[in-house]
Amino acid sequence: MQIVTEEQSARLITHEIAYEAVRAALIAAIQPQTASFPVVLGHGSDPADTFTVKSGAGPDIAGLKVGSYWPGNAARGWPRHNSTVLLIDQDSGRIGAVIEAGTVNAYRTAAADAVATDALARRDASVLAVFGTGHQAGYEVAALARIRKLRDILAVGRSEPARDAFIAGLAERGIAARAAAAEEACRAADIIVTATTARAALFDAAWVRPGTHVSSMGSDATGKQELPAQLLSRARLFCDLPEQSRRIGEFQHAAPDASLTAIGAVLAGEAPGRRDDDEITVFDSSGLALQDLYVARALLALLG
Q1: Does residue 134 sit in helix, strand or coil?
Q2: Does residue 83 contact residue 102 with C-beta atoms inside 8 Å?
Q3: Residues of the chain with CATH 3.30.1780.10
Q4: Do 80 and 73 meet the contact criterion of CB atoms below 8 Å apart?
Q5: Catalytic position from the list 54, 65, 149, 224
Q6: For this structure, is 54 an active site residue?
Q7: 3-state secondary structure of 83
Q8: Could you tell me the sign of the dihedral formed by the alpha carbons of 12, 14, 17, 23, in that order?
Q9: Where in the chain is the domain with CATH 3.40.50.720?
Q10: What's the rounded Cα separation, in Å, for the pair 227 and 232?
Q11: Is the Cα dihedral 146, 80, 131, 155 positive or negative?
Q12: Rounded to two decimals, what is the model's pTM?
């Protein structure tokens, strides 16, 4: 059994590696020989400490990812989010590799946003509004800055000190951003990304301009919500996996008869993406194990 530590995986991962692996995983997810199994939602002895188990299989890969969120870790100076990927040896059924993937998971999540945004956002999109100023939001901005030339980045957060620290952190990466109120950010944006743990809409649907692309990255459990339901009724809806998005993703808040398109079908040329410059497109990422498995395999290949 091969074991890859957090330090090793964090050193190896890049936005480029994550983008290519996640793109391939999203296309694989729509293939008939691929399976994504129901997500297990659990918690620790303290119900505030939560974890998810996501698993999947394809013709040449199978395994699972355990993702945990321990909010009390912040007071200890530890990451609140952690992930571990297990690849199963399909010949023996034993665990072939264990990859500690806390940092990798942040890159993987942001890569799903970048892949979908690259496929759906207008080619001239240049103003980004980001809701959320936590751990994940910085990875989202960095990943999106690779696929569009962003001339303005507007950061929206509930805590002014956290927002200012977030903007300062981006500046250290060479990315300029500025603070904005929710309405100002939405009305100016070509791309909106939400990376929060919200359980109610973060903005008003009327603030979103025609032609905007929106990515919801934080809704991955029953009851979570980042986008207004009214927006979903006037937009074209895309996601990583329709049945999962309906169950635990943002589209649990969409109308029962709303049409959902797997982004993998767009990437494979089997379904249309953006059809004109006035459409509003929404991508919901509830997270697929296949994405984690493909990224893990890419990292193992680098180790030889």
Answers
A1: coil
A2: yes
A3: 2-104+290-303
A4: yes
A5: 65
A6: no
A7: strand
A8: positive
A9: 114-287
A10: 8
A11: negative
A12: 0.96
CATH tag, 114-287: 3.40.50.720
Three-class SS of residue 107? Answer: helix
Structure tokens at 171: 């500046």
Q: Which of 113, 117, 152 is nearest to 274 (CA)?
A: 117
Residue reference for tokens 């903007």: 167
Residue 91, classified by CB atoms within 10 Å of its CB into exposed (0-12), middle (13-18) or buried (19+), is exposed
Amino acid type, 20: E
Statement: 2-104+290-303 belongs to CATH 1.10.10.60: no
Residue with tokens 């493909």: 294
Does residue 214 sit in helix, strand or coil? strand
Q: Which residue in the block uniquely carries the two structure tokens 């200012």? A: 164
3-state SS, residue 302: helix
Per mean pLDDT, which range of 6-10, 70-74, 227-231 is the poorest?
70-74
Amino acid at 156: V
> How many of the other CB atoms lie within 10 Å of CB of 1?
10
Q: Which residue has the tokens 């020989």?
A: 33
Beta-bridge partner residues of 95: 88
Mean pLDDT, range 69-90, rounded to an integer: 94
What does the mean pLDDT of the chain come to? 97
Is it the case that residue 142 has pLDDT exceeding 90? yes
